[in-house]
């Protein structure tokens, strides 16, 4: 528990300086890094033919964003499919390990900053694929998320403006001045902590017991840093941050968790600064913190009290299943709260093995719409959408047309916010429903795991529920978690489900696209529409959105909207499971 | 004619009950997506009830479900009908009076002819005597009468309408109670106030306001979310049943019941009632709002432009102090001032007489009428007074009296000029009194700020509303009165152009502006303002330009209109919050009950007797809460002037937190009652 408090204090301390820096970068203020990196920025603009001072309307901004995302996704898809003919491939992986459905799923996954990994990295992607095809998205998708958040904040804080900034400029500046310097330093820190960075192939060694074991290696540190900083979460190894090469020690673990919240927390402060009132940012930060801390404490308490079913055997009381002893209970649950809150998806323990309530917290964090700090950019823009809805519902109660930051919320904003809420709910609920009931013949190739490509045997699952490791309510939680994670662009897996089959890869791919663009597009539309509005000066008659009341309201709306939408599903999953467990089943 | 202001009279309720069924017409229900879903749910459940009847299923249960779902729709319809009731009753009697009305048209030769009211044209002259109904909108050009305007305003106390003054406008459909007046018709048939009013009160042309539309979108969106949650529950349940190997799937009527409980029926059912009731409340204040939009905008107003005279100050100035000249006693001055004012019938003049009487008990003198000559005020002399024998007593503006004294060979000492100056600086008007060549002193005529205005403006400030006083006075006077009244700003020596410019400037800063006006030159400003309240006595141009007409022509009412607008928005927000907060309890009632057979462990979450009673209890609560909240929807949530932060905290607690908690005990009680009555 102390660990959670310590971690939170660190985040609290860095929010303001990080926010200040983000503000300078996106407001185009002079930076210390202008000298070493300014030429690179100008070169990029020139090379790509970008007019950096051109202000785009929201449609243009969205157009650029879609084009950028589509092209980069196609490039990744092609590179993955042809990895056999490309360099840096000591294991000799080819298209057999990366079939079309998996390449689609993977390309979408990295493009949408989800980093859901249907594949097992050690068994299917070459170093080149990792470093180029996938890594570019670790940068690009995070930069896109950041750009959207900045565009929304601009839209909210500008007065009677036509445009919401320039997409290319936001992406380039975000990458060059934010991700690049932090990654450069961070990678060295990781190496110093024991994370490998090498192009050598896997090592075959003989263990003390005399068993031969392959030790997978690779350029881990450079991917690890952006994986966390960009809330990507796609691990170099299948075990992700539970792997000792990705996350060697408790200190590295703390460093990792700080990296994940670094930008999302800083963005709340940048938002306040752009609006010219940092308290607005702190109110949002506080709402996120309340949700985050409650989740972390509940989850930790649940794991520490363990499973009463074991008590009668006199064994351990805490639930250590699926956790690394390096991190312990609190280290693991805190990580789980951070990674699901931030839509990062890196894991240092297996959420599937949590107690029902312990596992409910990560699931709820994802179902909240990834607004508990959330992904880079995505967290802030998701929360601001909820803020707009909250202000609309409760704001009427002060007797005025609801305003957020002095701008009236009209039908267009409500419409767009509802589009994103509906898309999320529909994607998660309908896909979970289909996966629970969908029937296919036992050996239908659509739901067959081609194990033969990875040195195992093929498995045909038949019905979609066949892919689950666990029956009953727990199996249902696994399905729900999968589609929630994909739609929320989180990417963490509850595990316990074999998703590398054509049908699952396709469904999950679609869920990720819906979760990404059915939020980004409405957000940009709101940004564009809000930018045009006048700002009514705040008075005593205005709904205060920088107060504790507003923070609590925001928390309430996140919980109630999430709970109302998903309560039936949660009741049939983790809640039943919990009741079964305490009932001794 | 219904003149009572009570909302819940038997006649209105009876009519609303009937209308509730008429409104079941699917075409009408479809306008409200939330209630349409309930209607579909009721129909589906009824079909299942018939099936259960035929196949000896549990018809008691499905029958009750169907019944309560129908009640839900009916209750919502009833709420709307209640809101419309008073307006409709008014419209009916208005229409009745219009069709049967005969008018006495005056012909040029002093004769009259009887014509049907709809045949009257603009410019016609009509004669009305005690007991006549005024046949058309017009202006009194001759006579004075007391008029019963309750047909329009619902206010039974008669009002005075007279030619030439502020109160010359009369409205068709109102009734002359005494005396005789001649009216010049100002509106063509079909376009009269009455016609427009019938359309307005009936809600025939009622359009959803922007805010109502946005809220409807939110509610429709939420309805869809819950539709998703309910529809997917079936496959989820199927999975659970497959996996656990026992249990049953939830029946379709139960799913329909769950859906109806979850979608925001409370606010969905009451939304239009709230809007109509808001308009109606405005009308109860004798203000006719041309659109719901205007009422809503009133709630958003952040700048109020108020005319000084009549709104902030009493219409007339009053004498408050005597400042005698050197060598003159106050009593002497009072006496002279009173003498000079005896014939002065203006309120100012009368107030001088009264002041002298109050201070020194100087009674009106018995004077030999023969020797007395009253001097009336003229624009040339700018003085009035009295001549008694050869005594010439005058009062008037400083400059005029000075000339008069100097013409009589006297001088005005500097002290008198100083006190006149001081009086002016304090925002009052100095009147100088002279007796022949002798200067008597200065009378202070003060603008009297209406009682309670300062507190009221303080409340406005607390609510974030800026008050601006508009006056024709000079800046010095204006500043003094502004300070005394406690307004935030003032425009002195205001011209219509200045008003318009001020409004534009406020609007450019993102503020919404409300104002009142009556003259034709106010029309541009009235049109520009977000809320423009025209006085009924005002010119036709002003009435056309504004978006509200105050039938009482009382400018102070602007403040009340703002409060009604705020109350309207608050009521909507409160019921939306309450409606959504209620869902938590309904979930806890229904979901465990639904799956208790599949997963017996869920018994731990269940707080009700059995699955059927749980579902029924939630549905019954959901229907009854609509009825329970009708008074709140129609009257509006209690309004208190305080800052938004305080209002928010208060309402968030009352409707949010209480809204989460309150359904639990009620659902529990209904559940127990159902079991006791053996209904479930």
Describe the structure.
By secondary structure, chain A is an all-alpha fold. Chain A has one domain. Chain A is 61% helix and 3% strand. Chain A has a two-stranded antiparallel ribbon. A two-stranded antiparallel sheet of chain A has the order 3-4. A two-stranded antiparallel sheet of chain A has the order 5-6. Chain A is globular. In chain A, 61% of the residues are buried. With 680 residues, chain B is an alpha+beta fold. The mean pLDDT of chain B is 85. The chains are: A mainly alpha (585), B alpha+beta (680). At the A-B interface, helix 14, helix 15, helix 16 and helix 18 of A face helix 7, helix 8, helix 11, helix 21 and helix 23 of B.
Topology of this structure?
The complex is a heterodimer of chains A (585) and B (680).
Chain A: H1 2-26, H2 34-48, H3 58-81, H4 100-111, H5 121-124, H6 127-157, H7 167-192, E1 203-206, E2 212-215, H8 220-229, H9 250-275, H10 278-305, H11 308-311, H12 328-341, H13 356-367, H14 378-395, E3 403-404, E4 407-408, H15 411-437, E5 448-449, E6 459-460, H16 472-487, H17 502-531, H18 548-582
Antiparallel strand pairs in A: 1-2, 3-4, 5-6
Helix pairs in contact in A: 1-9, 2-7, 3-4, 3-6, 3-17, 4-6, 4-17, 6-7, 6-9, 6-14, 6-17, 7-8, 9-10, 9-12, 10-12, 10-13, 10-18, 12-13, 13-16, 13-18, 14-15, 14-18, 15-16, 15-17, 16-17, 16-18
Chain B: H1 10-22, H2 26-29, H3 33-54, H4 59-100, E1 102-106, E2 112-116, E3 125-129, E4 138-142, E5 144-148, H5 150-153, E6 159-162, E7 169-170, E8 175-176, E9 180-185, H6 193-202, H7 210-231, H8 233-244, H9 252-262, H10 265-284, E10 287-289, H11 292-300, E11 303-307, E12 313-324, H12 330-341, H13 347-360, E13 372-375, E14 383-388, E15 391-396, H14 398-407, H15 414-425, E16 429-435, E17 438-449, H16 453-462, E18 466-470, H17 475-485, E19 489-491, H18 496-508, E20 513-517, H19 523-528, E21 531-535, H20 540-545, E22 548-550, H21 557-595, H22 611-635, H23 644-661, H24 663-676
Helix pairs in contact in B: 1-4, 3-4, 3-9, 4-6, 4-9, 4-10, 4-22, 7-9, 9-21, 9-22, 10-21, 10-22, 11-21, 12-13, 21-22, 21-23, 22-24
């Amino acid at each position: 528990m102390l660990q959670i408090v310590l971690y939170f204090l660190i985040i609290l301390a860095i929010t303001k300086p990080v926010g200040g820096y983000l503000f300078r970068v996106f407001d185009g203020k002079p930076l210390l890094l202008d000298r070493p990196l300014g030429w690179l920025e100008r070169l990029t603009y020139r090379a790509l033919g970008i007019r950096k001072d051109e202000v785009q309307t929201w449609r243009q901004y969205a157009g650029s964003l879609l084009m950028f995302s589509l092209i980069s996704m196609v490039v990744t898809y092609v590179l993955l499919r042809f990895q056999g003919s490309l360099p840096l491939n000591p294991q000799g992986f080819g298209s057999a390990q990366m079939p079309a459905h998996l390449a689609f799923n993977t390309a979408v996954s990295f493009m949408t900053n989800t980093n859901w990994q249907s594949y097992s990295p050690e068994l299917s992607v070459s170093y080149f694929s990792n470093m180029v095809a996938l890594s570019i998205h670790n940068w690009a998708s995070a930069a896109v998320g950041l750009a959207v958040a900045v565009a929304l904040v601009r839209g909210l804080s500008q007065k009677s403006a036509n445009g919401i900034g320039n997409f290319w400029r936001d992406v380039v500046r975000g990458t060059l001045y934010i991700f690049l310097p932090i990654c450069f330093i961070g990678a060295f820190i990781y190496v110093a902590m024991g994370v490998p960075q090498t192009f050598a192939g896997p090592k075959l060694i003989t263990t003390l017991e005399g068993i031969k074991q392959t030790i997978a290696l690779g350029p881990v540190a450079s991917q690890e840093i952006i994986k966390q900083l960009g809330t990507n979460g796609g691990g170099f190894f299948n075990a992700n941050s539970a792997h000792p090469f990705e996350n060697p020690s408790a200190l590295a673990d703390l460093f990792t968790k700080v990296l994940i919240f670094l930008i999302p927390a800083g963005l709340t402060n940048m938002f306040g600064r752009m609006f010219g009132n940092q308290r607005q940012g702190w109110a949002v930060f506080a709402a996120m913190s309340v949700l985050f801390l409650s989740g972390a404490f509940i989850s930790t308490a649940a794991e520490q009290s363990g499973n009463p079913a074991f008590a009668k055997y006199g064994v351990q009381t805490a639930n250590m299943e699926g956790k690394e002893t390096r991190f312990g209970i609190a280290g693991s649950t805190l990580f789980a709260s951070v990674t699901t809150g931030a839509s990062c998806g890196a894991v240092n323990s297996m959420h599937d093995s949590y107690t029902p309530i312990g596992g409910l917290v990560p699931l709820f964090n994802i179902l909240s719409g990834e607004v508990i700090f959330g992904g880079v950019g995505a967290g802030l823009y998701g929360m601001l959408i909820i803020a707009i809805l909250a202000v609309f519902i409760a704001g009427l109660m002060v007797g005025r047309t609801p305003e957020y930051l002095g701008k009236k919320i009209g039908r267009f904003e409500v419409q767009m916010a509802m589009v994103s809420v509906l898309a999320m709910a529909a994607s998660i609920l309908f896909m979970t429903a289909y996966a629970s009931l969908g029937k296919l013949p036992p050996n239908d190739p659509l739901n067959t795991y081609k194990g033969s490509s990875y040195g195992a045997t093929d498995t045909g699952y038949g019905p979609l529920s066949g892919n689950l490791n666990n029956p009953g309510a727990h199996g249902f939680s696994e399905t729900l978690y999968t589609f929630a994670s994909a739609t929320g662009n989180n990417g963490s897996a509850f595990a316990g489900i074999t998703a590398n089959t054509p049908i699952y890869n396709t469904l999950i791919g679609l869920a990720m696209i819906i979760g990404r663009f059915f939020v980004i597009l409405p957000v940009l539309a709101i940004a564009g529409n809000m930018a045009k509005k006048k700002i009514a000066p705040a008075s005593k008659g205005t709904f205060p959105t920088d107060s504790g009341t507003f923070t609590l309201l925001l928390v309430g709306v996140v919980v109630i909207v999430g709970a109302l939408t998903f309560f039936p599903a949660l009741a049939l999953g983790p809640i039943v499971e919990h009741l079964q467990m305490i009932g001794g089943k | 004619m219904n003149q009572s202001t009570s909302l819940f009279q038997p006649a209105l309720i009876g009519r609303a009950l009937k209308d509730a069924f008429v409104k079941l017409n699917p075409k009408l229900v479809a306008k409200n997506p939330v209630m349409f879903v309930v209607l579909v749910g009721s129909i589906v459940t009824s079909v299942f009830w018939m099936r259960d009847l035929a196949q000896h299923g549990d018809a008691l249960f499905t029958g009750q479900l169907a019944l309560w779902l129908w009640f839900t729709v009916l209750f919502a319809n009833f709420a709307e009908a209640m809101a419309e009731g008073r307006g409709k009753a008014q419209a009916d009697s208005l229409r009745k009076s219009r069709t049967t009305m005969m008018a006495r048209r005056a012909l040029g030769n002093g004769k009259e002819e009887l014509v049907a009211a709809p045949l009257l044209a603009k410019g016609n002259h009509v004669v009305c005597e005690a007991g006549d109904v005024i046949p058309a909108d017009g202006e009194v050009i001759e006579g004075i009468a007391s008029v019963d305007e309750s047909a329009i305003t619902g206010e039974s106390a008669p009002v005075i309408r007279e030619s030439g003054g502020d109160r010359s406008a009369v409205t068709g459909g109102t009734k002359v109670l005494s005396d005789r007046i001649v009216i010049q018709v100002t509106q063509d048939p079909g376009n009269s106030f009455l016609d427009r009013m019938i359309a307005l009160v009936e809600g025939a042309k009622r359009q959803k306001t922007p805010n109502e539309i946005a809220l409807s979108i939110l509610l429709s969106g939420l309805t869809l979310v819950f539709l998703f949650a309910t529809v997917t529950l079936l496959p989820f349940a199927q999975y659970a049943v497959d996996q656990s190997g026992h249990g049953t799937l939830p029946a379709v009527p139960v799913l329909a019941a769950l859906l109806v409980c979850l979608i925001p029926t409370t606010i969905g059912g009451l939304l239009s009632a709230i809007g109509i009731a808001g308009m109606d409340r405005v009308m109860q204040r004798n203000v006719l709002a041309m659109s719901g939009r205007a009422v809503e905008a009133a709630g958003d107003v952040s700048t109020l432009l108020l005319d000084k005279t009549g709104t902030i100050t009493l219409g007339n100035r009053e004498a408050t102090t005597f400042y005698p000249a050197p060598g003159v006693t106050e009593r002497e001055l009072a006496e002279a001032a009173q003498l000079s004012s005896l014939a002065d019938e203006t309120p100012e003049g009368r107030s001088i007489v009264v002041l002298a009487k109050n201070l020194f008990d100087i009674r009106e003198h018995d004077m030999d009428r023969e020797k007395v000559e009253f001097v009336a005020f003229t624009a040339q002399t700018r003085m009035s007074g009295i001549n008694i024998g050869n005594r010439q007593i005058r009062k008037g503006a400083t400059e005029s009296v000075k000339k008069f004294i100097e013409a009589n060979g006297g001088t005005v000492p500097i002290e008198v000029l100083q006190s006149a100056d001081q009086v002016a600086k304090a925002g009052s008007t100095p009147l100088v009194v002279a007796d022949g060549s002798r200067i008597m002193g200065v009378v202070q005529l003060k603008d009297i700020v209406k009682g309670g205005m300062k507190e009221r403006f303080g409340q406005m400030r607390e609510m974030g509303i800026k008050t601006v006083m508009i006056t024709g006075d000079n800046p010095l006077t204006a500043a003094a009165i502004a300070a005394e009244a406690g307004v935030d700003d003032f425009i002195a020596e205001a011209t219509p152009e200045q008003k318009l410019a001020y409004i534009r400037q406020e609007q450019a800063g993102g503020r919404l502006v409300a104002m009142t006006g009556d003259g034709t030159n106010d029309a541009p400003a009235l049109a520009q303002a977000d809320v423009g309240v025209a006085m009924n006595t005002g010119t036709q141009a002003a009435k056309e330009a504004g978006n509200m007409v105050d039938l009482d022509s009382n400018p102070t009412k602007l403040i009340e209109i703002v409060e009604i607008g705020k109350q309207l928005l608050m009521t909507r927000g409160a019921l939306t919050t309450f409606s959504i907060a209620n869902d938590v309890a309904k979930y806890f009632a229904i979901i465990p009950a639904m799956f208790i057979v599949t997963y017996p462990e869920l018994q731990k979450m269940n707080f009700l007797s059995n699955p059927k009673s749980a579902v029924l209890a939630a549905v019954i609560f959901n229907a009854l809460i609509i009825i329970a909240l009708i008074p709140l929807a129609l009257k509006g949530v209690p309004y208190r002037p305080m800052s938004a932060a305080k209002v928010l905290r208060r309402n968030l607690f009352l409707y949010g937190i209480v809204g989460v908690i309150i359904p639990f005990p009620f659902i529990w009680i209904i559940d127990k009652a159902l079991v006791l009555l053996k209904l479930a």
